[in-house]
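[INFO] parsing input record for Diaminopimelate epimerase
[DEBUG] input buffer:
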Amino acid sequence: MKLEIDFIKCNPTQNMTILVKTIHPFEEYTNIASKLMSYDSVNAEQVGFIEKSTKKEVAAHLKMAGGEFCGNACMALAGYIASNKGLRQNDSEEIVLEVSGTDELVMCRVIKKIDEYYCQVTMPIPKKIEQRVITYDGSDLEIFIVRYREFIHIVIEVEQFNKAVREKAQTLAKLLGVTLEANLIGILLYKPESDELAPLIYVPDLDTMIWERGCGSGTASLGAYLAWKKKGRVSAQAKQPGGTIQVVADWNKEKLQSLKIEGTVGIVAQGKAFVHV
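[DEBUG] output buffer:
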Protein backbone atom coordinates (compact mmCIF):
# COMPACT_ATOMS: atom_id res chain seq x y z
CA MET A 1 0.00 0.00 0.00
CA LYS A 2 1.31 3.44 -0.94
CA LEU A 3 0.87 6.27 1.56
CA GLU A 4 0.94 9.97 0.74
CA ILE A 5 2.58 11.86 3.59
CA ASP A 6 2.67 15.61 4.19
CA PHE A 7 5.97 16.55 5.79
CA ILE A 8 8.26 19.38 6.82
CA LYS A 9 12.02 18.90 6.88
CA CYS A 10 13.92 21.04 9.36
CA ASN A 11 17.55 21.72 10.15
CA PRO A 12 18.23 22.15 13.88
CA THR A 13 22.05 22.30 14.01
CA GLN A 14 22.25 19.86 11.07
CA ASN A 15 20.33 17.20 13.03
CA MET A 16 18.02 16.79 10.05
CA THR A 17 14.48 16.21 11.26
CA ILE A 18 11.28 15.25 9.44
CA LEU A 19 7.95 16.30 10.95
CA VAL A 20 4.90 14.41 9.64
CA LYS A 21 1.69 16.43 9.41
CA THR A 22 -0.71 13.74 8.17
CA ILE A 23 -2.48 11.52 10.69
CA HIS A 24 -1.48 7.85 10.83
CA PRO A 25 -2.09 5.00 13.30
CA PHE A 26 0.56 4.88 16.00
CA GLU A 27 1.48 1.30 15.07
CA GLU A 28 2.58 2.54 11.63
CA TYR A 29 4.96 5.21 12.97
CA THR A 30 8.04 2.99 13.08
CA ASN A 31 7.64 1.70 9.53
CA ILE A 32 6.82 5.14 8.09
CA ALA A 33 9.77 6.72 9.90
CA SER A 34 12.22 4.08 8.67
CA LYS A 35 11.10 4.65 5.07
CA LEU A 36 11.22 8.46 5.30
CA MET A 37 14.67 8.47 6.93
CA SER A 38 16.23 6.34 4.20
CA TYR A 39 18.60 7.72 1.58
CA ASP A 40 16.17 6.96 -1.25
CA SER A 41 13.36 8.94 0.38
CA VAL A 42 13.32 12.30 2.21
CA ASN A 43 16.49 11.31 4.13
CA ALA A 44 16.95 12.51 7.72
CA GLU A 45 18.23 11.43 11.13
CA GLN A 46 14.87 11.31 12.91
CA VAL A 47 11.12 11.57 12.42
CA GLY A 48 8.44 13.10 14.62
CA PHE A 49 4.67 13.01 14.16
CA ILE A 50 2.54 16.08 14.86
CA GLU A 51 -0.65 15.33 16.76
CA LYS A 52 -3.29 17.53 18.36
CA SER A 53 -3.15 17.92 22.12
CA THR A 54 -6.17 17.75 24.39
CA LYS A 55 -4.66 20.49 26.58
CA LYS A 56 -5.81 24.01 25.81
CA GLU A 57 -2.46 25.70 26.47
CA VAL A 58 -0.52 23.27 24.25
CA ALA A 59 0.14 24.14 20.60
CA ALA A 60 0.79 20.56 19.47
CA HIS A 61 1.69 17.07 20.64
CA LEU A 62 4.97 15.77 19.20
CA LYS A 63 5.46 12.01 19.13
CA MET A 64 8.81 10.69 18.02
CA ALA A 65 8.78 7.47 16.01
CA GLY A 66 10.60 5.51 18.71
CA GLY A 67 8.69 7.08 21.61
CA GLU A 68 11.81 8.96 22.65
CA PHE A 69 12.21 12.59 23.71
CA CYS A 70 14.12 14.87 21.35
CA GLY A 71 15.15 18.45 22.08
CA ASN A 72 16.05 19.26 18.48
CA ALA A 73 12.69 17.97 17.25
CA CYS A 74 11.06 20.31 19.79
CA MET A 75 13.06 23.17 18.28
CA ALA A 76 12.02 22.08 14.79
CA LEU A 77 8.31 21.94 15.63
CA ALA A 78 8.41 25.22 17.55
CA GLY A 79 10.14 26.87 14.58
CA TYR A 80 7.55 25.47 12.18
CA ILE A 81 4.63 26.64 14.33
CA ALA A 82 6.22 30.09 14.60
CA SER A 83 6.68 30.21 10.82
CA ASN A 84 2.91 29.92 10.40
CA LYS A 85 2.29 32.93 12.64
CA GLY A 86 3.84 35.46 10.27
CA LEU A 87 6.51 36.72 12.66
CA ARG A 88 8.63 39.64 11.55
CA GLN A 89 12.37 39.74 12.07
CA ASN A 90 13.26 39.72 15.81
CA ASP A 91 9.64 39.06 16.81
CA SER A 92 9.29 36.33 19.45
CA GLU A 93 6.67 33.72 20.29
CA GLU A 94 6.14 31.49 23.33
CA ILE A 95 5.08 27.96 22.33
CA VAL A 96 4.11 25.09 24.63
CA LEU A 97 4.50 21.50 23.42
CA GLU A 98 3.51 18.09 24.68
CA VAL A 99 6.26 15.63 23.77
CA SER A 100 6.82 11.88 23.91
CA GLY A 101 9.33 10.61 26.44
CA THR A 102 8.47 13.13 29.17
CA ASP A 103 5.49 13.94 31.39
CA GLU A 104 6.49 17.61 31.55
CA LEU A 105 5.18 20.23 29.13
CA VAL A 106 8.00 21.70 27.07
CA MET A 107 8.26 25.50 26.91
CA CYS A 108 9.81 26.99 23.77
CA ARG A 109 10.70 30.59 23.02
CA VAL A 110 11.21 31.31 19.33
CA ILE A 111 12.74 34.45 17.79
CA LYS A 112 12.49 35.07 14.05
CA LYS A 113 15.81 35.78 12.36
CA ILE A 114 16.50 36.57 8.70
CA ASP A 115 16.32 33.03 7.31
CA GLU A 116 15.99 30.86 10.42
CA TYR A 117 14.57 30.75 13.94
CA TYR A 118 16.45 31.04 17.21
CA CYS A 119 14.93 28.70 19.78
CA GLN A 120 15.26 28.31 23.52
CA VAL A 121 13.79 25.09 24.89
CA THR A 122 13.19 24.23 28.55
CA MET A 123 14.35 20.64 28.85
CA PRO A 124 13.26 17.83 31.20
CA ILE A 125 15.28 17.50 34.41
CA PRO A 126 17.12 14.17 34.73
CA LYS A 127 15.79 11.80 37.38
CA LYS A 128 19.31 10.92 38.50
CA ILE A 129 22.96 11.54 37.66
CA GLU A 130 25.56 9.07 38.87
CA GLN A 131 29.16 8.04 38.35
CA ARG A 132 30.07 4.43 37.62
CA VAL A 133 33.22 2.52 36.78
CA ILE A 134 32.45 -0.50 34.63
CA THR A 135 34.66 -3.24 33.28
CA TYR A 136 34.26 -3.09 29.54
CA ASP A 137 36.33 -4.61 26.77
CA GLY A 138 38.95 -5.78 29.27
CA SER A 139 39.54 -2.47 31.03
CA ASP A 140 37.90 -0.11 33.54
CA LEU A 141 35.78 2.64 32.00
CA GLU A 142 34.51 5.65 33.95
CA ILE A 143 31.04 6.70 32.83
CA PHE A 144 28.49 9.23 34.03
CA ILE A 145 24.88 8.11 33.72
CA VAL A 146 22.19 10.73 33.16
CA ARG A 147 18.83 9.01 33.68
CA TYR A 148 15.46 10.25 32.49
CA ARG A 149 12.03 8.62 32.65
CA GLU A 150 12.34 6.72 29.38
CA PHE A 151 15.84 7.35 28.08
CA ILE A 152 19.42 7.29 29.27
CA HIS A 153 22.49 9.29 28.30
CA ILE A 154 26.02 8.19 29.12
CA VAL A 155 28.69 10.90 29.29
CA ILE A 156 32.24 9.68 28.69
CA GLU A 157 35.15 12.10 28.85
CA VAL A 158 37.73 11.35 26.16
CA GLU A 159 40.88 12.90 24.75
CA GLN A 160 40.01 12.25 21.11
CA PHE A 161 37.24 11.01 18.82
CA ASN A 162 39.23 8.34 17.00
CA LYS A 163 37.92 5.20 15.32
CA ALA A 164 38.62 2.93 18.30
CA VAL A 165 36.76 5.22 20.71
CA ARG A 166 33.78 5.50 18.36
CA GLU A 167 33.59 1.74 17.79
CA LYS A 168 33.66 1.11 21.54
CA ALA A 169 30.83 3.64 21.98
CA GLN A 170 28.74 1.89 19.32
CA THR A 171 29.21 -1.52 20.90
CA LEU A 172 28.35 -0.12 24.34
CA ALA A 173 25.17 1.50 22.99
CA LYS A 174 24.00 -1.80 21.50
CA LEU A 175 24.77 -3.65 24.73
CA LEU A 176 22.87 -1.13 26.85
CA GLY A 177 19.97 -1.24 24.40
CA VAL A 178 19.60 -4.95 25.15
CA THR A 179 20.10 -4.77 28.92
CA LEU A 180 18.23 -1.56 29.78
CA GLU A 181 14.57 -0.74 29.29
CA ALA A 182 14.85 2.60 27.54
CA ASN A 183 13.43 4.18 24.39
CA LEU A 184 16.78 5.76 23.62
CA ILE A 185 20.42 5.24 24.54
CA GLY A 186 22.79 8.14 24.00
CA ILE A 187 26.57 7.84 24.28
CA LEU A 188 28.00 11.34 24.64
CA LEU A 189 31.73 11.53 23.99
CA TYR A 190 33.00 14.76 25.51
CA LYS A 191 36.37 16.50 25.18
CA PRO A 192 36.55 18.86 28.21
CA GLU A 193 39.55 20.84 26.98
CA SER A 194 37.81 21.98 23.79
CA ASP A 195 34.11 21.63 24.77
CA GLU A 196 33.57 19.31 21.81
CA LEU A 197 30.74 16.79 21.88
CA ALA A 198 30.27 13.72 19.67
CA PRO A 199 26.75 12.36 20.29
CA LEU A 200 25.83 8.79 19.35
CA ILE A 201 22.10 8.09 19.50
CA TYR A 202 20.66 4.57 19.45
CA VAL A 203 16.89 3.96 19.31
CA PRO A 204 16.27 0.24 19.98
CA ASP A 205 12.68 0.16 18.65
CA LEU A 206 13.83 1.51 15.28
CA ASP A 207 17.24 -0.19 15.46
CA THR A 208 18.81 3.08 14.29
CA MET A 209 22.23 4.23 15.43
CA ILE A 210 23.47 7.64 14.28
CA TRP A 211 26.42 9.86 15.06
CA GLU A 212 24.36 13.04 15.11
CA ARG A 213 25.82 16.28 13.81
CA GLY A 214 24.01 18.16 16.56
CA CYS A 215 22.08 16.78 19.54
CA GLY A 216 19.91 19.07 21.66
CA SER A 217 18.98 16.48 24.28
CA GLY A 218 22.60 15.34 24.51
CA THR A 219 23.70 18.94 25.00
CA ALA A 220 21.17 19.28 27.83
CA SER A 221 22.50 16.12 29.48
CA LEU A 222 26.05 17.41 29.14
CA GLY A 223 25.00 20.63 30.88
CA ALA A 224 23.26 18.66 33.63
CA TYR A 225 26.39 16.55 34.13
CA LEU A 226 28.66 19.61 34.27
CA ALA A 227 26.38 21.34 36.82
CA TRP A 228 26.24 18.14 38.90
CA LYS A 229 30.03 17.88 38.78
CA LYS A 230 30.55 21.55 39.66
CA LYS A 231 27.64 21.68 42.14
CA GLY A 232 26.83 25.06 40.64
CA ARG A 233 25.37 26.92 37.69
CA VAL A 234 26.79 26.15 34.26
CA SER A 235 26.53 28.00 30.97
CA ALA A 236 28.38 26.19 28.22
CA GLN A 237 28.63 25.83 24.48
CA ALA A 238 28.79 22.31 23.11
CA LYS A 239 30.71 22.34 19.84
CA GLN A 240 29.39 19.65 17.52
CA PRO A 241 29.98 18.78 13.86
CA GLY A 242 26.84 20.65 12.75
CA GLY A 243 27.40 23.72 14.91
CA THR A 244 27.22 24.91 18.50
CA ILE A 245 24.31 24.48 20.93
CA GLN A 246 24.19 26.52 24.12
CA VAL A 247 23.13 24.96 27.43
CA VAL A 248 22.32 26.65 30.73
CA ALA A 249 21.91 24.49 33.84
CA ASP A 250 20.90 26.05 37.16
CA TRP A 251 21.97 24.19 40.30
CA ASN A 252 20.74 25.13 43.77
CA LYS A 253 20.70 23.34 47.12
CA GLU A 254 22.25 20.12 45.85
CA LYS A 255 19.71 19.87 43.06
CA LEU A 256 19.38 20.72 39.39
CA GLN A 257 16.68 23.40 39.20
CA SER A 258 16.35 24.12 35.48
CA LEU A 259 17.85 23.09 32.18
CA LYS A 260 17.63 24.99 28.89
CA ILE A 261 19.18 24.69 25.46
CA GLU A 262 19.44 27.33 22.76
CA GLY A 263 20.08 26.92 19.07
CA THR A 264 18.88 27.70 15.57
CA VAL A 265 16.53 25.87 13.25
CA GLY A 266 15.80 26.36 9.58
CA ILE A 267 12.96 24.96 7.48
CA VAL A 268 14.58 23.44 4.41
CA ALA A 269 11.75 21.56 2.67
CA GLN A 270 8.02 21.01 2.76
CA GLY A 271 5.84 18.80 0.60
CA LYS A 272 4.57 15.28 0.01
CA ALA A 273 6.40 11.99 0.27
CA PHE A 274 5.23 8.60 -1.00
CA VAL A 275 6.12 5.47 0.94
CA HIS A 276 5.10 1.84 0.53
CA VAL A 277 4.10 0.03 3.72
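[INFO] Residues 152 and 180 are 9 Å apart (CA to CA).
[INFO] shutting down worker
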